[in-house]
Amino acid sequence: MTLDSVRRAYDALAEDYAALLPDTRAESALDLAVLDAFAREVAGPVLDAGCGAGRMSRYLADRGCRVHGVDLSPGMVERARRDHPDLTFDVAALTDLPFADATFGGIVLWYSTIHTPPAGQPEVLAEVRRVLRPGGSVVVAFQAGTGSRDLAPAYRRVGHDVVLERHLFAPDDVAAWLAGAGLRETCRLVRRPQGREADDQAVLLTRAEG
């Protein structure tokens, strides 16, 4: 699966995705508690990397963060700008963020690394670390486990013929990739599935060393 296929998939899904997930109703109170802790401790602007239609950008902005969202999908960014005109959104890949070194006090990767296979995770996190200030915070959410899930059949049932898969990661592996990028784990949440979720969910909160 290439970046182009992920981009095309989310361009096709943007309107329905935003309607299905307009806010944080899909998150558990535990998920949001970690995000709230991030919002309280962060100093400086926040990057919502892989922002989709902007629902987590909105959540963070409502908690006092100065948020800039980026997403690979122009369709998602268009919807984010429409739904949240007071916030700033741009099109960008996680591996090529259009910002100077040490721009942000905090970065959110809320289920935005799940389409990158394990071998590509260090590159993504190295780029995230590049634009993070010393002492800044990064929060990463993902499905916990091993292997991958083909999402195409589920989307085909609701009228979208897309190529899309997501990867599950062991929390220890994610913590190791983060550590390799100079990000020290400070909090870990792993919870069982709820609602329509099929897999365990994990959130890691980290801080940049140095």
Automatic annotation (TrEMBL):
InterPro entries: Methyltransf_25 (IPR041698), SAM-dependent_MTases_sf (IPR029063). Residues 46-136 form the Methyltransferase domain. GO terms for molecular function: methyltransferase activity. It comes from the Bacteria. Keywords: Methyltransferase, Transferase. CDD domains: AdoMet_MTases. GO terms for biological process: methylation. This is Class I SAM-dependent methyltransferase.
